[in-house]
Amino acid sequence: TSLLSVEQLTKEYKNGKHAIRGVSFSLEQGECLGLVGESGCGKSTLARCLLRLEPVTGGTITFKGKPIQQLNEKQLNPYRRDMQIVFQNPAAALNPRLRIRDSLLDPYNQYGRHMQHNYFSCSSRSAFVDELLEAVELPSSLAGRYPHELSGGQKQRVTIARAISIEPAMIVLDEPTASLDVLSQGAILTLLEQLQRQLNLAYLFISHDLAAVSRMSSRLLVMREGQFVDEFARQEMFAED
Ligand code: ADP
Ligand code: ADP
Protein backbone atom coordinates (compact mmCIF):
# COMPACT_ATOMS: atom_id res chain seq x y z
CA THR A 1 0.00 0.00 0.00
CA SER A 2 1.01 3.62 -0.54
CA LEU A 3 2.65 5.69 2.17
CA LEU A 4 0.10 8.44 1.63
CA SER A 5 -3.21 8.22 -0.15
CA VAL A 6 -5.50 11.21 -0.62
CA GLU A 7 -9.03 10.72 -1.96
CA GLN A 8 -11.37 13.46 -3.13
CA LEU A 9 -9.98 16.04 -0.72
CA THR A 10 -11.88 19.31 -0.48
CA LYS A 11 -11.21 22.45 1.51
CA GLU A 12 -13.57 25.38 1.80
CA TYR A 13 -12.37 28.32 3.90
CA LYS A 14 -14.78 30.04 6.27
CA ASN A 15 -15.14 32.93 3.83
CA GLY A 16 -16.59 30.49 1.28
CA LYS A 17 -13.42 30.17 -0.82
CA HIS A 18 -13.16 26.65 -2.30
CA ALA A 19 -9.37 26.35 -2.21
CA ILE A 20 -9.31 22.59 -2.94
CA ARG A 21 -11.96 21.00 -5.13
CA GLY A 22 -11.66 17.23 -4.93
CA VAL A 23 -8.04 16.15 -5.40
CA SER A 24 -6.79 12.55 -5.27
CA PHE A 25 -3.23 11.24 -5.37
CA SER A 26 -0.91 8.78 -3.70
CA LEU A 27 2.73 8.87 -2.70
CA GLU A 28 4.95 5.82 -2.32
CA GLN A 29 7.71 5.38 0.24
CA GLY A 30 10.92 7.02 -1.00
CA GLU A 31 9.19 8.74 -3.92
CA CYS A 32 9.40 12.42 -4.88
CA LEU A 33 6.10 13.71 -6.22
CA GLY A 34 6.16 17.19 -7.76
CA LEU A 35 3.31 19.67 -7.47
CA VAL A 36 3.35 22.81 -9.60
CA GLY A 37 0.83 25.56 -10.18
CA GLU A 38 0.45 29.32 -10.20
CA SER A 39 0.25 31.38 -7.04
CA GLY A 40 -3.19 31.06 -5.45
CA CYS A 41 -4.08 27.67 -7.00
CA GLY A 42 -4.17 25.93 -3.59
CA LYS A 43 -0.72 24.35 -3.12
CA SER A 44 -0.07 25.70 0.37
CA THR A 45 -3.61 24.92 1.45
CA LEU A 46 -3.07 21.31 0.39
CA ALA A 47 0.21 21.21 2.34
CA ARG A 48 -1.43 22.61 5.46
CA CYS A 49 -4.32 20.12 5.20
CA LEU A 50 -1.90 17.19 4.90
CA LEU A 51 -0.04 18.37 8.00
CA ARG A 52 -3.34 18.87 9.82
CA LEU A 53 -2.58 22.55 10.33
CA GLU A 54 -5.98 23.15 8.67
CA PRO A 55 -9.10 20.99 8.95
CA VAL A 56 -10.32 19.54 5.66
CA THR A 57 -13.94 19.90 4.53
CA GLY A 58 -14.26 16.56 2.74
CA GLY A 59 -12.45 13.48 1.48
CA THR A 60 -9.95 11.16 3.15
CA ILE A 61 -6.24 11.24 3.95
CA THR A 62 -4.73 7.80 4.63
CA PHE A 63 -1.17 7.63 5.94
CA LYS A 64 0.58 4.30 6.53
CA GLY A 65 -2.79 2.62 6.10
CA LYS A 66 -4.58 4.75 8.71
CA PRO A 67 -7.22 7.40 8.02
CA ILE A 68 -6.04 10.50 9.85
CA GLN A 69 -8.84 13.09 9.53
CA GLN A 70 -10.59 11.94 12.71
CA LEU A 71 -7.55 11.65 14.98
CA ASN A 72 -7.32 13.90 18.03
CA GLU A 73 -4.20 15.88 18.93
CA LYS A 74 -2.71 13.09 21.03
CA GLN A 75 -3.36 10.40 18.39
CA LEU A 76 -1.72 12.69 15.84
CA ASN A 77 1.67 12.66 17.59
CA PRO A 78 3.22 9.70 15.73
CA TYR A 79 1.82 11.12 12.50
CA ARG A 80 3.27 14.54 13.22
CA ARG A 81 6.66 12.89 13.70
CA ASP A 82 6.35 11.03 10.42
CA MET A 83 5.42 13.96 8.20
CA GLN A 84 7.55 17.09 8.39
CA ILE A 85 7.47 20.32 6.39
CA VAL A 86 10.16 22.65 5.09
CA PHE A 87 8.88 26.13 4.24
CA GLN A 88 10.00 28.72 1.76
CA ASN A 89 11.43 31.18 4.24
CA PRO A 90 13.89 29.63 6.72
CA ALA A 91 14.24 32.92 8.62
CA ALA A 92 10.56 32.75 9.57
CA ALA A 93 10.80 29.05 10.45
CA LEU A 94 13.59 29.48 13.01
CA ASN A 95 13.07 31.11 16.40
CA PRO A 96 15.47 34.11 16.37
CA ARG A 97 16.05 33.82 20.12
CA LEU A 98 17.17 30.19 20.04
CA ARG A 99 20.67 29.03 19.29
CA ILE A 100 20.89 26.64 16.32
CA ARG A 101 21.51 23.74 18.70
CA ASP A 102 18.24 24.37 20.54
CA SER A 103 16.20 24.81 17.35
CA LEU A 104 17.60 21.50 16.12
CA LEU A 105 16.60 19.70 19.32
CA ASP A 106 13.06 21.06 19.30
CA PRO A 107 11.29 18.20 17.39
CA TYR A 108 13.35 15.62 19.26
CA ASN A 109 12.20 17.02 22.57
CA GLN A 110 8.61 16.90 21.35
CA TYR A 111 8.44 13.66 19.35
CA GLY A 112 11.77 11.88 19.91
CA ARG A 113 10.18 9.05 21.85
CA HIS A 114 8.42 7.94 18.65
CA MET A 115 11.59 7.84 16.58
CA GLN A 116 13.24 4.73 15.18
CA HIS A 117 16.97 5.56 15.37
CA ASN A 118 17.68 4.06 11.98
CA TYR A 119 20.02 6.89 11.04
CA PHE A 120 20.79 9.01 14.07
CA SER A 121 22.14 7.40 17.22
CA CYS A 122 21.44 10.35 19.54
CA SER A 123 24.00 8.91 22.02
CA SER A 124 23.99 12.33 23.66
CA ARG A 125 22.31 15.64 22.85
CA SER A 126 25.52 17.28 21.69
CA ALA A 127 26.53 14.23 19.61
CA PHE A 128 23.05 14.29 18.05
CA VAL A 129 23.39 17.97 17.12
CA ASP A 130 26.78 17.18 15.53
CA GLU A 131 25.25 14.26 13.56
CA LEU A 132 22.50 16.53 12.26
CA LEU A 133 24.81 19.34 11.24
CA GLU A 134 27.06 16.85 9.49
CA ALA A 135 24.09 15.38 7.60
CA VAL A 136 23.38 18.79 6.07
CA GLU A 137 27.07 19.60 5.57
CA LEU A 138 27.32 22.39 8.13
CA PRO A 139 30.27 22.77 10.55
CA SER A 140 29.56 21.84 14.17
CA SER A 141 30.80 25.30 15.16
CA LEU A 142 27.43 26.72 14.04
CA ALA A 143 25.61 24.99 16.92
CA GLY A 144 26.12 27.91 19.28
CA ARG A 145 25.14 30.62 16.80
CA TYR A 146 21.83 32.41 16.36
CA PRO A 147 19.86 32.35 13.07
CA HIS A 148 20.75 35.96 12.14
CA GLU A 149 24.43 34.96 12.12
CA LEU A 150 23.82 32.43 9.30
CA SER A 151 23.32 32.92 5.56
CA GLY A 152 19.97 32.08 3.95
CA GLY A 153 21.32 28.81 2.57
CA GLN A 154 22.77 27.84 5.95
CA LYS A 155 19.46 28.63 7.66
CA GLN A 156 17.60 26.44 5.16
CA ARG A 157 20.09 23.63 5.88
CA VAL A 158 19.23 23.99 9.57
CA THR A 159 15.49 23.72 8.91
CA ILE A 160 16.15 20.64 6.75
CA ALA A 161 18.30 19.12 9.51
CA ARG A 162 15.47 19.76 11.94
CA ALA A 163 12.94 18.17 9.59
CA ILE A 164 14.98 14.98 9.23
CA SER A 165 16.05 14.85 12.89
CA ILE A 166 13.26 12.54 14.02
CA GLU A 167 13.52 10.35 10.94
CA PRO A 168 10.19 11.10 9.24
CA ALA A 169 8.86 8.97 6.38
CA MET A 170 7.85 12.06 4.42
CA ILE A 171 8.66 15.75 4.04
CA VAL A 172 6.46 18.35 2.38
CA LEU A 173 8.81 20.78 0.64
CA ASP A 174 6.85 24.00 0.19
CA GLU A 175 8.93 26.16 -2.18
CA PRO A 176 12.11 25.21 -0.27
CA THR A 177 14.50 27.18 -2.50
CA ALA A 178 12.32 30.15 -3.47
CA SER A 179 13.92 32.58 -0.98
CA LEU A 180 17.53 31.62 -1.79
CA ASP A 181 20.08 32.95 -4.27
CA VAL A 182 20.70 30.83 -7.36
CA LEU A 183 23.88 29.14 -6.07
CA SER A 184 22.27 28.14 -2.78
CA GLN A 185 19.21 26.87 -4.65
CA GLY A 186 21.30 24.33 -6.55
CA ALA A 187 23.18 23.28 -3.41
CA ILE A 188 19.97 22.79 -1.43
CA LEU A 189 18.39 20.71 -4.23
CA THR A 190 21.50 18.50 -4.34
CA LEU A 191 21.36 18.08 -0.56
CA LEU A 192 17.65 17.20 -0.65
CA GLU A 193 18.35 14.58 -3.35
CA GLN A 194 21.14 13.01 -1.28
CA LEU A 195 19.04 12.90 1.87
CA GLN A 196 16.13 11.36 0.00
CA ARG A 197 18.33 8.42 -1.02
CA GLN A 198 20.16 8.09 2.30
CA LEU A 199 17.05 8.22 4.47
CA ASN A 200 14.58 6.73 1.96
CA LEU A 201 12.40 9.84 2.29
CA ALA A 202 9.21 10.55 0.39
CA TYR A 203 8.80 14.16 -0.73
CA LEU A 204 5.82 16.16 -1.86
CA PHE A 205 7.79 18.89 -3.63
CA ILE A 206 5.68 22.02 -4.13
CA SER A 207 7.00 24.78 -6.33
CA HIS A 208 6.27 27.18 -9.15
CA ASP A 209 9.79 26.42 -10.44
CA LEU A 210 9.21 23.72 -13.04
CA ALA A 211 12.94 23.11 -13.60
CA ALA A 212 13.62 22.44 -9.91
CA VAL A 213 10.64 20.15 -9.48
CA SER A 214 11.13 18.13 -12.65
CA ARG A 215 14.80 17.55 -11.75
CA MET A 216 13.83 15.64 -8.61
CA SER A 217 10.35 14.23 -9.14
CA SER A 218 9.30 10.88 -10.54
CA ARG A 219 5.85 12.31 -11.29
CA LEU A 220 4.50 15.81 -11.62
CA LEU A 221 1.01 17.05 -10.79
CA VAL A 222 -0.26 20.33 -12.19
CA MET A 223 -2.77 22.23 -10.05
CA ARG A 224 -5.14 24.94 -11.20
CA GLU A 225 -7.94 26.56 -9.19
CA GLY A 226 -7.96 23.82 -6.57
CA GLN A 227 -7.89 20.85 -8.95
CA PHE A 228 -5.30 18.67 -10.60
CA VAL A 229 -5.52 19.40 -14.30
CA ASP A 230 -2.55 17.36 -15.55
CA GLU A 231 -0.11 14.65 -14.54
CA PHE A 232 3.24 13.80 -16.11
CA ALA A 233 5.52 10.83 -15.58
CA ARG A 234 9.28 11.46 -15.47
CA GLN A 235 9.85 10.19 -19.05
CA GLU A 236 7.25 12.65 -20.36
CA MET A 237 8.86 15.63 -18.59
CA PHE A 238 12.10 15.13 -20.46
CA ALA A 239 10.71 13.74 -23.70
CA GLU A 240 11.78 15.58 -26.85
CA ASP A 241 9.19 16.39 -29.46
P1 ADP B 1 1.43 31.76 -0.93
O1 ADP B 1 1.03 32.12 -2.32
O2 ADP B 1 2.91 31.70 -0.74
O3 ADP B 1 0.72 30.58 -0.40
P2 ADP B 1 -0.34 33.81 0.04
O4 ADP B 1 0.05 35.22 -0.11
O5 ADP B 1 -1.35 33.19 -0.85
O6 ADP B 1 1.02 32.98 0.02
O7 ADP B 1 -0.83 33.53 1.54
C1 ADP B 1 -0.07 33.96 2.65
C2 ADP B 1 -0.89 33.70 3.90
O8 ADP B 1 -2.12 34.44 3.86
C3 ADP B 1 -1.27 32.23 4.06
O9 ADP B 1 -1.13 31.85 5.41
C4 ADP B 1 -2.72 32.19 3.65
O10 ADP B 1 -3.44 31.21 4.38
C5 ADP B 1 -3.23 33.56 3.97
N1 ADP B 1 -4.24 33.98 3.00
C6 ADP B 1 -4.13 34.01 1.67
N2 ADP B 1 -5.26 34.42 1.07
C7 ADP B 1 -6.11 34.68 2.08
C8 ADP B 1 -7.46 35.15 2.12
N3 ADP B 1 -8.16 35.43 1.02
N4 ADP B 1 -8.03 35.31 3.33
C9 ADP B 1 -7.35 35.02 4.43
N5 ADP B 1 -6.08 34.57 4.48
C10 ADP B 1 -5.47 34.41 3.30
P1 ADP C 1 -0.87 28.73 -3.36
O1 ADP C 1 -0.11 28.09 -2.24
O2 ADP C 1 -0.96 27.85 -4.57
O3 ADP C 1 -0.34 30.09 -3.69
P2 ADP C 1 -2.99 28.98 -1.42
O4 ADP C 1 -3.24 27.60 -0.93
O5 ADP C 1 -2.16 29.88 -0.55
O6 ADP C 1 -2.38 28.92 -2.89
O7 ADP C 1 -4.36 29.71 -1.68
C1 ADP C 1 -5.40 29.11 -2.46
C2 ADP C 1 -6.60 30.03 -2.46
O8 ADP C 1 -7.19 30.05 -1.16
C3 ADP C 1 -6.25 31.48 -2.79
O9 ADP C 1 -7.34 32.02 -3.50
C4 ADP C 1 -6.13 32.14 -1.43
O10 ADP C 1 -6.40 33.50 -1.49
C5 ADP C 1 -7.17 31.37 -0.62
N1 ADP C 1 -6.80 31.28 0.80
C6 ADP C 1 -5.63 30.85 1.30
N2 ADP C 1 -5.65 30.86 2.64
C7 ADP C 1 -6.88 31.32 2.98
C8 ADP C 1 -7.52 31.55 4.22
N3 ADP C 1 -6.91 31.34 5.39
N4 ADP C 1 -8.79 32.03 4.19
C9 ADP C 1 -9.41 32.24 3.02
N5 ADP C 1 -8.87 32.03 1.82
C10 ADP C 1 -7.62 31.58 1.80
In short:
The protein is of the alpha/beta class. It has helices at 43-50, 77-82, 90-93, 100-111, 125-135, 152-164, 182-199, 210-216, 234-237; strands spanning 4-12, 18-27, 32-36, 58-63, 66-67, 83-86, 170-174, 202-207, 219-224, 227-233.
**How many helical stretches?**
9
| Unreliably modeled segments | none
State the secondary-structure class: alpha/beta
Report the average pLDDT across residues.
93
Strand order of the largest sheet: 6-7-8-3-9-10
Termini gap: 35 Å
Task: Report the oligomer.
Answer: single chain
* Rough outline: globular
Bound molecules: adenosine-5'-diphosphate
| Beta-strand residue fraction | 15-25%
Classify the helix fraction into a percent range: 25-40%
Q: Please give the radius of gyration in angstroms.
A: 18 Å
Order of helices and strands: EEEHEEHEHHHHEHEHEEH
Number of strands: 10
Largest sheet: 6 strands, mixed
Protein name: Peptide/nickel transport system ATP-binding protein
Domain ABC transporter: 4-241
Organism: Paenibacillus typhae
InterPro entries: AAA+_ATPase, ABC_transp_ATP-bind, ABC_transporter-like_ATP-bd, ABC_transporter-like_CS, P-loop_NTPase
